[in-house]
């Protein structure tokens, strides 16, 4: 591929033929039209777009209590048990994370008190993608941390044609309200509010290109978690890597979507060649080969690195959404990595476990966003809001430099506000 970066000490056993970054459909104009229509016409516009895009003509968007319980009853016992297992693990990890976010009160100068509070977002909208399969883990990952964080109301939107099990998943995860609305119109409804859908303060959750673009366009007065592209997995391996296991894990992620980006970064050429052959061998009898094979053909890569330093530098440049470490001392090696969405240390730690039920969140940064942010977590649903209060002694410390700085900047109103309190103290 022409726009592949050149790195010292890195050659390619297989290069991707296409760029996921450059293959986004030109959806900006259509999404803008959808947002404007929903903002203007509310439920009527949502209903029209649901008919147009989802072939669904629903009298009521909101899922009733009776429908919730019917979906729950229809869920087979093992699927329910597995979903509840995932919920328990995600909840436990989110609770542990929340315990590390503490309110603060300090007095850096005598009489100058400042700090912060940890305040849950009041109302959050969770977009739950429908996809080709009922992905029961999807609502767990967005709704459960919100409830742990203390969000007052969690609104879930999922496509009208989503599998009924997804309604059960939203219910079990703790959604306060569930709506059968998909696509950009769902983002618009949650951002602006309609006659039936309440406006939210923040929207989270992955979706297709239209959902992503809608989130981008409403961002500002409405918060979002991130802009997610197609899924990604890279595996770092040395000569100890197991070719069959590496290929299995790459294909497990590749079956998500034909645009999934999958890759191996290794220092060992025999392993690189073995994985290349193993991918073809496993695709021959993989039931999802039509999707996984297309992803591997178009976006798959195997990078051969001269040494560990080159391997780490290239990995940090890629900043993969999911990054697995299959090296002789994986835990030590992992401490030298900087950019990734979520890290899976050692060959026993598969992305699939996190995708489904182990407890870490599977909503993660893609398209190199791991260089500057992590994934969805309980902290996504709280605000760290600062405050201060001063005694008279505190005013005497900060008013003079504040007044002088304001005067130097030519901001007379600022100078007066800083000086007024000091003058009042002097008059007493």
How do the strands and helices of this protein lay out in sequence?
Layout: E1 10-14, H1 28-41, H2 43-54, H3 65-74, H4 77-98, E2 104-109, E3 112-120, E4 123-127, H5 137-149, E5 153-158, H6 164-173, E6 177-180, H7 183-192, E7 202-204, H8 209-218, E8 223-224, E9 232-237, H9 243-254, E10 261-266, H10 269-283, H11 289-299, E11 301-305, H12 308-318, E12 322-326, H13 330-334, E13 342-345, H14 351-356, E14 382-390, H15 392-408, H16 412-427
Parallel strand pairs: 4-5, 4-7, 5-6, 7-8, 9-10, 9-12, 10-11, 12-13
Antiparallel strand pairs: 1-11, 2-3, 3-14
Helix pairs in contact: 1-2, 1-7, 1-8, 2-7, 3-6, 4-5, 5-6, 7-8, 9-10, 9-11, 15-16
Structural class: alpha/beta
Q: How confident is the prediction overall: mean pLDDT?
A: 95
Q: Tell me the β content.
A: 15-25%
Specify the number of helices.
16
Helix content: 40-55%
Q: Which stretches are low in confidence, meaning pLDDT under 50 for 5 or more residues running?
A: none
Number of strands: 14
Domain module tally: 3
At CATH level 2, the architecture of the largest domain is 3-Layer(aba) Sandwich
Query: What is the CATH level 1 assignment of the largest domain?
Result: Alpha Beta
**Separation, N- and C-terminal Cα atoms:** 76 Å
What general form does the structure show? globular
SSE order in H/E notation? EHHHHEEEHEHEHEHEEHEHHEHEHEHEHH
CATH topology of the largest domain: Rossmann fold
Radius of gyration from the CA trace? 25 Å
Any idea what the CATH superfamily of the largest domain is called?
Answer: Nitrogenase molybdenum iron protein domain
Q: How are the strands of the biggest sheet laid out side by side? A: 1-11-10-9-12-13
User: Biggest sheet, in brief?
Assistant: 6 strands, mixed
């Amino acid at each position: 591929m022409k726009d592949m970066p050149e790195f010292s000490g890195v050659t390619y056993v297989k290069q991707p033929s296409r760029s996921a970054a450059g293959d986004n459909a030109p959806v900006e104009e259509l999404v803008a039209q959808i947002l404007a229509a929903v903002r203007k016409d509310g439920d009527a516009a949502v209903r029209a777009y649901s008919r147009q895009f989802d072939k669904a003509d629903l009298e009521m968007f909101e899922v009733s209590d009776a429908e919730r319980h019917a979906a729950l009853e229809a869920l087979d016992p093992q699927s329910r048990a597995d979903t509840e297992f995932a919920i328990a693990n995600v909840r436990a990890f989110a609770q542990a994370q929340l315990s590390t976010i503490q309110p603060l009160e300090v007095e850096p100068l005598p009489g100058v008190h400042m700090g912060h509070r940890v305040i849950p977002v009041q109302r959050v909208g969770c977009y739950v993608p429908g996809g080709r399969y009922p992905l029961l883990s999807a609502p767990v990952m967005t709704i459960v941390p919100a409830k742990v964080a203390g969000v007052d109301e969690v609104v879930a939107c999922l496509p009208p044609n989503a599998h009924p099990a997804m309604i059960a998943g939203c219910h079990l995860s703790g959604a306060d309200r569930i709506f059968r609305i998909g696509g950009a119109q769902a983002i618009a409804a949650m951002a602006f509010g309609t006659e039936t859908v309440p406006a939210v303060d923040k929207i989270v959750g992955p979706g297709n290109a239209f959902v992503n673009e809608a989130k981008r366009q409403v961002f500002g007065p409405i918060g979002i978690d991130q802009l997610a592209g197609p899924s990604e997995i890279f595996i770092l391996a040395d000569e100890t890597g197991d070719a069959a296991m590496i290929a299995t894990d790459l294909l497990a992620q590749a079956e998500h979507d034909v645009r999934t980006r999958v890759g191996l970064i290794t220092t060992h050429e025999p392993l690189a060649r073995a994985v290349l052959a193993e991918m073809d061998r496993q695709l021959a009898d993989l039931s999802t080969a039509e999707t996984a094979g297309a992803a591997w053909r178009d976006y798959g890569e195997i990078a051969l690195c001269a040494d560990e330093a080159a391997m780490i530098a290239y990995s940090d440049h890629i900043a993969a959404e999911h990054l697995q470490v299959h090296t002789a001392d994986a835990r030590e090696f992992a401490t030298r990595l900087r950019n990734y969405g979520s890290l899976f240390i050692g060959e026993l730690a598969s992305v699939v476990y996190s995708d489904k039920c182990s407890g870490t969140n599977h909503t993660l940064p893609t398209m190199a966003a791991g260089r500057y942010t992590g994934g969805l977590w309980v902290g996504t649903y709280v605000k760290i809001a600062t405050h201060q209060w001063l005694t008279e002694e505190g005013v005497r410390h900060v008013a003079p430099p504040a007044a002088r700085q304001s005067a130097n900047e030519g901001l007379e109103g600022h100078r007066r506000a800083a000086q007024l309190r000091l003058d009042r103290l002097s008059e007493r």
